[in-house]
């Protein structure tokens, strides 16, 4: 809708727009209803922003010993539920 508002601004005051019901207006042009690509030439162009920058607030590194991992493995074998 925005692209049509921009396109017809120069004719403001010199024309009248009349809506016709869909069953009466059977000669509508399909291309005018196609969406335009979001490129800078499009009057309704909205620039896509880059991925938002998320600051890293902190880093936590944990090293789990092999003994603990072995206990977990044995526990899974013992209690298969």
UniProtKB/TrEMBL annotation:
It comes from the Eukaryota. This is Uncharacterized protein.
């Amino acid at each position: 809708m925005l692209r049509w508002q921009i396109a017809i601004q120069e004719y403001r005051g010199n024309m009248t727009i009349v809506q016709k019901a869909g069953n009466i207006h059977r000669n509508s042009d399909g291309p005018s209803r196609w969406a335009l690509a979001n490129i800078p030439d499009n009057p309704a162009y909205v620039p896509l922003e880059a991925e938002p920058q998320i600051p890293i607030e902190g880093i936590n590194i944990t090293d789990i010993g092999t003994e603990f991992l072995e206990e977990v493995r044995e526990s899974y074998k013992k209690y298969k539920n």
